[in-house]
Records
---
Amino acid sequence: MKATRLCRPLSRASGTPHRTRRGGSPTIRGPKPSRRRCSCGTPLCCSDRPSPSRPPSFRPSAPVRRTSACRRDRVPAHRNGRGDHARRTTDAASNTRKTGDDHMHASLPRRRTARLAAALIAASLLSALAAAQPAAPEDTLDFYAVAPDLRHYVAGAVERNPTVLEAQARYEAARQQVPQVTALPDPVINFTQALRSVETRVGPQLNSVTLTQAFPWFGTLELRGRVAVLEATALLHHYEAKRRDVVARVKEAYYDLGYVDAALGLAGEEQSLLEHYETLASARYATGQGLQQAVIRLQAEISLVVDRRYALERQRAALTTHLNTLLDRPAEEPVPIVPPPTRPAVEVDREQLYRLGERHRRELRAASARIEGSEQAIELAEMHARPGFTASVGVTNVGRRDDRAGLPLPPDNGRNAVTLSVGASLPLWSARYRAGVEQANDELRAYTRQRAAARNAMEMEVQEAVVRLETLDRQIDLLDTVLIPQTEEALRATETAYETGQLGVLELLDSERTLIDVRTMRARYLSDLLIALTALERAIGTRVPLTGRTP
């Protein structure tokens, strides 16, 4: 029997080499040779891998050489200090690097997606926060002032009045609520230490770190921001209303001071006139042409005028204290004499005033802001019944395996595990959410009625102020055109008759008192007219149009 030799090609079916004769043709034809190749691309011979019939621990006695075409490994394995175990370790490391590269390339799209999602969330939060910003308060207040010092008093009161500053502080505090309600809740980080490590294929799990972030339902943060902005807007209008209140109170105190100063001036004129009459009566009594009763009556009238001046000075001190309180100044700080005010000319159009009140009345605007906020609050309460979400990312610290049996270690030995989890809350208690929606609806009805009441109050105040303005304007016209000229003429005639002895001192005192009363009445009417104009400005929330000075 002729000897046979092993050929390099192997049979695919059985894995056994073809049998050929020495110098003859092969007696057994097998399938095509194996297509297994080296890492450099060169086909491997059949002796480079163990036969299926051989056990895994089989080692050839003779040194195994690679084909000469494989230039990477021309040195035999037993000469370069590496056997099959070293080659397997190299292949495992190569596979590990290949797996790591594949994992890295596969994680790139996930990283880009995570970054894009984070950027979109941040952009949406920033846009919601930028849009959710209340308006700034007005820098200047438009109102009618009869004198420059009145504007000075009003500016000081608006800047320093404690009531105004309190309303401003509440508005500023409400503004700080906006970034709080539009921000995500703080993330939670957890650390877990295994008291007894869990053994896995790649090594024991020692500890883990998890970062969790909660997310409300889509649009919840934006709605919270809108509700907070509308509440801050309502407090802004409340702050502006307090400023208007202080302006009106300062103007009323100023106009009352103007009346008191005018009355004090008239009382001084009356006292001087009565003292002149007393001198005349004393001279007539000294010459025997008059009676002592006339002198005594004039002296009594002078005392009454002095008493009236004391009362007016006491009233002025009270008004000065009130004005200083509004200006946040010491109560005893003196206030200069108010110059005589000029009479304004006002053309009143009720329909125009109602429209201005609808547009500028701060209480109406605050109620409108709260109505809009309640509508947003209803939508927010309905959104609370929807689930929230949580996203968690964790890293588990895995120790390295040390297999003492000499078995090959897994390629990912000691690799840390990375986890990603997503959760959602379950809004099961529907009664709670229904109660929140009903509460928001009740608040909406309350603010709607509050706005209706504020509108009715505005119309009532406008009507009252207009009636007072028209009435006082007609009364001042009557005084200027009829009563004051008549009383002045009557006093002049009475003085002439008294000097000639035709009339006595009683008639003279009556004429003089009537003139002083009419002039004092005119000062009171003018002050009331300016106060009514102030009330009308307060009712509509801005300056009354077509307001000027009389020619």
---
Amino acid sequence: MAVDIMSWLSLTNVLVVGVVSLLVYWFWRSQQGLKTFEKLGIPGPRPMYVVGNARQLSSGGFCDKFFEWNKEFGRVYGIYLPNTPAVIVSDLDLLRDVFVKKFGYFHNRMPQKIMDFKPWKDNLLQLRDDHWKYVRSQLSPTFSSGKLKKMMPAIDRVIKNLDRNVKAKMESGEPVELKEVAGAFAMDTIAGAAFGMQVDTLNNPKDPFNVNGLNLFNQNFWLLPILLIFPGLAPFLSKIGISFISVHSTNFFMDVMDMALKERRLDKKNYNDFLQLLLDGQKEGDQSKGPVDAEIDFTSQLQTAKDWNRDSMNDDEMKANALIFLLAGYDTTSIVLSFTLFHLAANPECLQKAQQEVDEKVGNDTVNYESAGELTYLDMCMNEAMRLFPPGFMIDREADEDVELGKYQVKKGMRMIIPCYSIHRDPEYWTEPEKYDPERHTPEAKAKRHPFAFMPFGFGPRNCIGMRLAQLEIRMAIATAIQHYTPVLCEKSVYPPVVEMPQTRMVAKDGLWVNFKPRE
């Protein structure tokens, strides 16, 4: 008995010593990691042990902190997330290297371990190296002009519903919160254009598609610090129902897609939506060999490895990218649509020019694919709203090898973060940066400006693949609204809007309130 107790105590001591040793080693490695930028001569804010600079970012807000640090440390500085070194770059010439000249060194995004489980792990934002090149080449034709035109009936249906809703609000005299309306429009458009479903969120916000779609954004932020320090836990936790992104809502959309794919493989009904285009691609074979618009054919120069030369995407890849269509498309559409309309309401001279252009190009007809493409001034108004409030307020990349970036040495595995919000409001690049001025986006003004001073959708082969669809549906929605009505500020309006970043999403603190009046 005494021998058993002694053996147990010895084993306990060994385990305790082992655990303590591992903790000491981990702490030492963390401490050494926090000296990376000091050794490389890159300035930056002082990190805290274990959490690095993550606490400062979470307490101060990403956009505000990047803006503050940019003033303090310059256009290149380093932070730790939490112990992983990340270089913040807002030097435009260096960004040209990252996105274009040295893209081969920076073709991957930062690994997102919080999404490193099925179905999310196969989406385009998450994929890396040759797998990303393969999926990108298969998806690119889906956003060609011909394929976008096929999605028009779904978009038209939602725009007509939006028009009726705005008219009802106007006749009742109720003020309209634009983010709420734009969010409903975005959700309904995605339901139709991506999944072939007719959803009326404007009149039925409790529709399961909308409820579960919004729930994907209600992430479990209490889990983020744990996953930042122990990223390898994400796949295990997801198996027991604990995830950064709602498992319940993810399963809802997986069931929707499983049912849709099964039905479409059995019947011959013609669907014109994103999911059907992916399914058609699976039937027809390699989509990268089909016709692709030159402006979206970013992958033609990228040779796909032999491991990824199969003819089409599998079901997991299709479902993952339909999900990211929802996640990425919702915020982009709702933010740009709401902030553009709000700024037009606050700037009557800009609104008048936009309405005049719609009158000339569209008249009393319904806005369509062709006429929407002719609304150049409205496009300038949208671009200026995206300059002030970029839906993607930062872009990230990862160095695949040691590489020189200007006078700096970037090590393999080091993260790169591009603070678009800070760049878009930098007084060196923009005069009166806080002012809303669509004239900044005339061809003449753009020719005089550094091309990397404005990047609402990123740059290079890894830019936003769905940007043309987003721009099209937003342009059509705004054109329809101002064709029939005039948005004006009301008693509840707060201009300029104050932006908050709850859960890394850009929202107006006081809402974006306007009244709509009939056109005179």
---
Amino acid sequence: MAAIRPQFVLFGDSITQKSFGPGGWAGVVADAYQRRVDVINRGYSGYNTRWALPLVDHIFPANVTSKVELATVFFGANDAALADRTSSTQHVPLSEYITNMKSIVAHFRSRNISSIILITPPPVSEPARIAHVLATYNVTLDAPERTNDAAGHYANAVVALGAEVGLPVVNLWQEFQKIENWGEELLNDGLHLTPKGNTLVGTLVLESIRKNYSALQPEKLKFDLPEWSEMASTTDGAEAIKSYLREKK
């Protein structure tokens, strides 16, 4: 399929993978860019930055010309899993996490993707994580495999990285905790997002685009093809479309 629209690529873990589900945050973004941008989901459930780093050359190989105008990088929820608890295989030390995130950003920039938004991991509701494991696996945990404090350290690292490399950051760890009863309102299992949480993420991403990449605001991008009324006003609408497409090549 020929790419006649610009593309936004969402790169991340399960919170990105699920973002095109009903009420998902990618849907919020895609809805704002109807007929203007193709929003592409490259989310990989359970992945940390160590496992994601080898994917970037696969997703954006050097020999492929793309029309990617913006990318989001949204990892950390799995990296921040504690090293001495049940999700230890997903844990990535904070120093390595920062290095991996820098490498992902550098790769995107090497592919001429300059408009990048970093997204921090959300906060963790520890009681909800324990309840989720009990309900799902019938296992009672003495302590959750993730903590809000650990997630906060990784979120702060993303904020610092954004300042270092000159990129905007959507700080979910901070923004979520401004909402009363955020653990129940925004998270469905202490980690993943409810519809309300998804709506908030989508809204924050759109706000970041408006603030930091004004040329990519929805109303500043043209539709990929003319309005139907333009076709109806010509003597040969089909030929008008063909002519338009020839000019786009």
---
Amino acid sequence: MTDAGRRPKYCPICGQENGCGIGEPRETCWCTHAYFPKGIFAKVPPDQLRKSCICKECLEKFVEENRADTDTHSPL
């Protein structure tokens, strides 16, 4: 089992520290004002959903990859 599978301070997607502010005032965490598209949760292993936070880097990477996909497709 990876660190992400055992500890909530690690991103369930990449396994790096997620910078979560759990236990701190809510407004101090970076994710308080972040938007998480539904699709990003498909990248989290099912047994890890709602057990640890996705890191900012994985969120930014997902958003950028999906923006690129949207930008390369022309509307009908």
